[in-house]
């Protein structure tokens, strides 16, 4: 079994690795609770309107790279529909920006609904997020909710995903 020894991982990288473990659902119980049959859930989806990178300038500000974010809500149930009640978008500061679902929307079995947060829409900031609320009349396989972040330029491309996590209620 391969083991990463703590001394090998630089100190500056440790918080990032811990965050990646949490977001990827590798901690005990996280993925299991989210995938159990359910009649409805609130899901938290982190997205990034821009990515901060590089060294801080003289004003203490890092460079910012805007990215587009494609939010996908996949109904993973083979037989049953789900009702999407809301997809509320919040800024880094927790300020409500808008609801991408103006009225409840039925997602048929295996159907996917997508929303695009455009590259030029940076109002959400580097810590923007969605709260997705859905329900079903009978227990179903919960939806898979992800965001695909993309920035493509001539000499480089950045692509990464984020996954929703269950908000216990």
Describe this structure in words.
- The protein has 169 residues and is mainly β.
- 9% of the residues lie in helices and 45% in strands.
- It is elongated and about 55 Å long.
- The N and C termini lie far apart (37 Å).
- Mean pLDDT is 85; it is low at 1-7 and 26-33.
In short:
By secondary structure, this protein is mainly beta. It has two helices and twelve strands, in the order H-H-E-E-E-E-E-E-E-E-E-E-E-E. Strands 1, 5, 6, 7, 9 and 12 form a six-stranded antiparallel sheet that branches. A four-stranded antiparallel sheet has the order 8-4-10-11, with no helix packed on it.
Low-confidence stretches: 1-7, 26-33
User: Average pLDDT, to the nearest integer?
Assistant: 85
Largest sheet: 6 strands, antiparallel
Supply Rg. Answer: 18 Å
**How large a portion of the residues is in β-strands, by DSSP E?**
35-45%
| Class of secondary structure makeup | mainly beta
Helix content: under 10%
In total, the number of strands is 12
Write the layout of secondary structure elements.
Elements: H1 14-23, H2 30-35, E1 38-46, E2 50-53, E3 63-66, E4 68-74, E5 82-90, E6 96-99, E7 105-107, E8 112-117, E9 129-140, E10 144-152, E11 157-163, E12 165-166
């Amino acid at each position: 079994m391969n083991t990463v020894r703590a001394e090998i991982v630089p100190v500056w990288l440790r918080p990032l690795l811990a965050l990646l473990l949490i977001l990827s659902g590798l901690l005990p119980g996280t993925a299991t609770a989210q995938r159990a049959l359910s009649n409805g859930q609130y899901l938290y989806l982190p997205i990034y309107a821009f990515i901060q990178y590089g060294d801080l300038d003289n004003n203490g500000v890092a460079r910012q790279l805007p990215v587009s974010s494609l939010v996908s809500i996949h109904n993973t149930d083979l037989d049953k529909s789900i009702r999407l009640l809301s997809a509320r978008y919040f800024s880094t500061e927790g300020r409500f920006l808008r609801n991408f679902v103006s009225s409840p929307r039925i997602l048929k079995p295996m159907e996917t609904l997508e929303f695009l947060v455009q590259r030029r829409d940076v109002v959400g900031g580097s810590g923007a997020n969605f709260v997705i609320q859905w329900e079903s009349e009978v227990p179903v396989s919960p939806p898979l909710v992800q965001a695909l972040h993309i920035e493509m330029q001539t000499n480089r491309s950045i692509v990464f995903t984020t996954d929703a996590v269950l908000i216990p209620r």
